[in-house]
Each structure stands twice: as C-alpha cells, then as structure tokens.
Hints:
By secondary structure, the protein is of the alpha+beta class. The chain has 31 helices and 28 strands. α2 (about 290-300) runs parallel beside α4. It is elongated, with a radius of gyration of 58 Å. This is Vacuolar sorting protein 39/Transforming growth factor beta receptor-associated zinc finger domain-containing protein.
Amino acid sequence: MGRVLVFSTKGGVNWENEAALEGLGFDETSREPISQICCASALDLILLVVGDELVGLEMKDELQVLNFCSSVSRCAINSHPSLDDPFAVQLAVAHSQKPFVHIGTVADAEFVGDRKVSTVGRVVKMSFSGHCLCYSTESGAFYVQNLQAKSGGALKLFDGATDGHAICTFGMEEFALSGVHELVVFVNMQGVSSRPPISVSGRNRIVGLSLKEPFLHVLSEDGTVSIFSTVDAHLVQSLAFPTDEVQEVRQNIYCRSPAPITCQLENIDGVILIASPGDSALYELVPVSVVVQIEEQIQLRNLDSALSMLDKSAAFCLNDVEIVELNHLRKKLAFLFLQNANFSNGIALLSSIDGTDCSLAFLSLVVNQRPQLGMDPITHNDQNQVPIDGTFPEIPLEFVKQYLEETIRQRDGSHHQFIALFSCCLARIYAILEDFDSLFRHCDANEWNSAEFRHWLSTERRRPNWAAKLAVQRHCWTEAFATWEGQIGPNGQRKADEEEEREMMEECYATLFKVQKYSEMAASLPWLVRLNAKVCMEAIDALEEANPNEKCPPEEIVKLFQNSEPILVLRYLDSRIYELKVPFLHDKLLDLYVHFTRSDKSGQKERNDGTDPLTENEFRQKLRHFLLFSDHLNSEKAAKTFLKEKSGKFHIEAILAEANEHNAVDCLQKLMGSAAETDFSPSIKELFSAGQLLCTRFPSPEMLTTMLTLHLRLSSADSSLRANVVQILALLDCATDAAAVLRNVPDDLRSSALVCSFLRRHVAQRTNAKQWEKMRRELVAREQSRTERELGTRSACTKFRVDEQTKCGICERRLKADDEFVRHPHNGQLTHLRCFDERQSV
C-alpha cells in the first residue's frame, strides 16, 4: 500500500527502483492505495492519486515525491491543451467530496488552479480534451461540459451503470464512453457524435477504455480485451485475459477463484497497462506482429482462430516482408485444413492465394492422390512443395473442381505458362464426374483438348463419344470419325447401350454436315454409307452447295454408292450430269435410267426414305431429255441398250438416241410414223411429247413446220391436243414461208383465233423486216453521196509531187519523208517549215 514500483518495460519485470511515498501523514500500516496513475512525460513527472491526495513522482536524477493538493477523487490531463507553455501540463482535478472540478496547470513542481467548474454530482471518472470536459457521476450518468460556454452548464448524455464507468479521449474534444448494452458510444461538445457506436461482443459490461492510435482498446468485465480499428471500427483482435502458471499456483495456495477485472485499463505514456487486483499483477498489452500471432495459433492447432486473424490482417498496415510471411502462413494454413479434412476452409483459403507455387503444390497433391487422372507427376522445387509434412485424406473431386475453376477464372485472359496444366486437370475431373456440359463451358479447349486427352477419355474413361465430340471441336474430323467407327461401325466393338449408340450415330451424322472438305470425310464414307447412305449423300450435296469450289470426285462417289442404293447414284448424277465430262458417268446414268424405267422399283423405296417418289413416266422423261442433251453419251452403246429390249418399251428412246448422229427431221418423221406401226403403237400424247422435246433440242423452221404438220394431222382425233398448236405457231413467228404453214392447217382452223394471231405476228415481223431493209438502203445511199462529195473536193485541190530530188527552196537541202514542209505563198516552192518560220521572223 502506498508504494510505487518503477521498472523498465523493455527488461521485463526486473525492478529498477522503488520509492516509498513518505511524508503523507500516514504510518507504514495505514497508507492509502494508489487509485490512479497519469503520466506527464513532458515534465518527467508521474501523477498519482493516493487515497484522496494528488501527488507527483518526479523522474529526474533521483525519485522525488511532490505533494500537489488533497480531497481529490480523479484527475485528468488535457490531451489537447490550449497552453502556450510547452513545459506545463493542463490538469483537471475532481473534488472527492464536493461537485466541482479544479482546472489548473502543473509547472515548476506545483499545481496552480485557474478556475473552478461546477459539476452535476461527485465525479467518478473523467477525461479532458481541448475546452471540453467529459465525466460520469455516482448516479451512473455521463455529462459533457464546454468550459468556454458562458452558462457553464453540463449537457447530460445518458444514464449508464452505477457501478461501472469508462471514459477515454478520442481525438480533439471527442470522447469514447461505456454505454448501455455493451456499446462504446462516441460523444463531443454537442452531444452524441456522428460517429456510429461500436458493439462489443458478449454480455459483460465495459470497465476500461484506452486509445492508442490507430486502435481503441476495450476491457470487459470478464477480462476480454477487444481491439477495434479507429479507421473503420472493425474488430481487429479479441484477447482473453492471460492466466499463467504462477497465477494458477497462487489460486491453489490461497484458494482464490479467478477474479473479474475490476481495475482500470490505462494508456500510460503510450503503454497500455491492465491492473488486476485479483492476483496483484500488472499486465502490459504488448503489440505483437500479426505474423507471430498467427504462427502461434497454428502451432497450438487453433486453425479457426488463425483463419480469423488472417481475414482481419487486411486492416493492418503491413510491410513487404510481413506480406510475404502472411502469404506463406496462408498457404500453410490452407494445407493444414486439408490435412484435417476441413476441405471447405482449405479450398476457400487456397483460392484466395495469388501464386503459382501454391497452385502447383495443390495440383501435385491431387495428382498423387488420383492416379486415374492419368497425369504425369508435377516436378517439385523449393517453392511449389507442400508446406507441411504428413499424410492427407483424399480430397473430394468437387472441392478440387471448385478450386481449379476459381484459379482459371482469376487468370482469365492471361497467357500463364501453367494455365494449360490447370485446365487439363480440370477437364479430366469433369470427365470423371461425368460433367460434359461443364467441360465445354468452363475450359478453353485450346489448352487441354489434345489427342492425348481424347485418347485417355476414350480408353480409360470409356467415353468415346465425348472424345469424338472434342475432336470435332478441334476440327480433327478424321480422328472423330475413326473413334465413332470403332464403336458403331460395321466392325466396331458395340459396347455401348442402345441409347448411347443412337446418340453417337446422331452426332456422327451431324458432324458430316460440318466438314468443309471432301478429303476430311473420304476415309469414313465407306462404312458410313453402309449404315445410312441417304444421309451421306445429303452431306455430300450440302458440302458442294456450301463450297462451290469444293467438288467431290464423281467417279469415287458413284463407286461408293452403287452397291447400296442406286437411286441415290441416279439422283446424284442427274443433278450434275451436264457438268461432268467423263463418258463413263454418262453411260452409268443411262443404265440407271433404263433400269428404273424398265421396272418401277424406286417408288416404294423413296416412299420409305421419306422423299417424293418418281413415277415411271418421270424417269422416262428424264431419260429422253438426257439422250438429246448429253454431249458425252455413247450413242452406239445407247442404241445397243435399247435394242436388247424385245418388248419395244424403249422404241421412242431408240429414235431419240439417233437424233444426235442422224438428220433430226428424219428422226421426227420416223417418230411420228410410229403411230401407224402394228408392233408398237404409243399414245398420241407420248409421241407429241417426244416430238416437242426433239424440236426443243434442234429448233429450226424445218423441224417446227414438220412438227406442226404432224401435230395437226395426228391430233385430229383428239381436240384437246390442238392447244399445243399455239406453242408451235409461236415458235414459227419467224418462218419465211407462211403459205407453207397455212397449207398444213386444216380448213376448220384457218379462220380460228390461233391462225389469225399467227398471221398478225408473221405480217408484223415481215413488215418490220422490210422497214429495216428500206432504212439500210437509204443509209447506204447517203453514205455513197457523202463519199462522192469528199472525193470531188480533194480532186479540186492543187497537187504537188515530192520525190528524192525535191529540195527546200530556202536551204536547198533535200526534203525527207519525215520532214515538215509547206508551199511558199510567193513562189510556190516547197520549203521546210522551220526554214519558212525563220525567214518570216527575219
């Protein structure tokens, strides 16, 4: 009691000096306790409230006790003084019995009171800043008082607890108070500050407040010290009141139970001290690096606490060295979480680490745990090794996927050298998890979609269809078709179920329509044609339509399809035969036309395929058109083909085949003469149709006149056929011998509108031709007259002769063929133009 122990905080608890507070009028056994300590370092002075006495302990050459005043309950040094003297301290002293406060200064070893300020009640706690005084009374109420106000009255803030008060200065004329409901409230001269209050966790009342920038320290009744940032009011750290082995021994010896913290928390000259009456100990709150604190928590295996401190470390102002150390601790803590099977925290912490070394270490761990990934072990160095020893439980693939997705997302757009490795591992995890949609959605196919990966996917994971799709994505068409052939081809393994096999077929056929070059599908067409020739032919047609310059070899196409469905070959050749110059293909098309015309086998087949069926008549019309317009058809072969038909079914076709080699008019007459034959008598309409086709191929007036004659003669029995006369007469508008045409028209039709229209057009054309002939004759006459006039003008001009002997009349040099010369107007001699100009200038 009544004794001050002076020691150095740098040296631990080694006492340096001890001073007994003598001369206070008390004997050794009745000295009062020290209830408050304030430090005035500018004066090398410690202010002490001993009982109800305010004394000073001067810390100069030797310790000296100074007696300032009595009847004191509290004192407060102005944190923002308004004095001009740097060697004086402004002090507020509260009376222990009466409701007032002395405002004065301490200088030259004495306290000088300047003024007395009345208070609402006896002051229990007090803080002084600038011209503002904040205090609490025995009733538990808090007040703030402006010392410069003329009225001098105090502003009541709120009622607090009657047995617990805590006040500390918080800047210029601003204070922090222990409010109700475990709140720290900020006030100023106007009352409650605009600064929001701070909520202290727990249900224990606040017994101490102390500010040491940039932190506010809050001491709770249960011994918890909460440290808040003054910048954003976030809780930086929470510390439990320490209990060491010595304290436990004392408690056991004296049968003491842990006492609550009932003493004060003070900032004494920049040092935060906590006094505990329970074990007569004084504790210093020493700032320890967050790195050291986290390391200590990790060593104690308090991983959650270490993680919480890591999350709050962002509020600290760290140097470069501490940042590097924290990153290492974050990496170490992440792997400790994984080792303890806390995968969610471990993966979340790993994802927050920005560094390739950590990613490689984690990836190495996963690759070693999962041989089914089929990846080579990651090469280690000093940086990318796993930072802790021991075995790890198998990390679920869902967490690995989550980490790799986040890592790739953070590096999106960067050309990181290891991004391909991360993507490859993630792709294999997608494959194992059967998540093919994510395989395309989250990965850059250019990084991992390699032939090696596709082979692994097809063989190890038994997903050939996925491998083929990935090959299609890289435009490796041959590889994709080869993969499908091994599964659904005629000689494939066929290990897939029916649904999967159907899906592969659909993908395969759809890919055919994506190919841009025939060479990329040629190797796969033989087995694809055997499965579905119709789709293959449609793909070939689509390829040539989309790429006009990409032509498939027709001989190869015919060879591929001839043993499957001849109708497809016929359609293929029919659509492009006039562009092909290979006689073999023309002969092949002739055989197909004859085959399908002879026996109408295509109709039912085409109905089954869902296409529009062709009738026998349509095939026959195509055949006839082909016979007349094909430039590369072998006429002899065609004739032999038709002669083999004993039934005479191709009698008309045989006649048309001769038209390219013989006289077309004779063929037309022979064609129309078939109606009178007894062995074969085709219908009139069929004859007329063939005749019109022949006239279209060889459009001459002689052919049209013959066709009109035969048409009118043979169609007399069927009036409906006479409508075709209009078409023939329209083609005969330019016929020179209209009388010959009219002679072939029956008498009953000569006055019809058809003939009248023909005659009007014919007369108009003839009249027009005569008018043009007249105009041409007139133009010739005019041109002849103009020419004669020009010749007459030339004959009237003076003539002269220039030969080898002709000389210039001025220079007497011979005139050359390329010289420019003129006739002299005076003497008529020929002279050089230059000589004439020179003579004129003289």
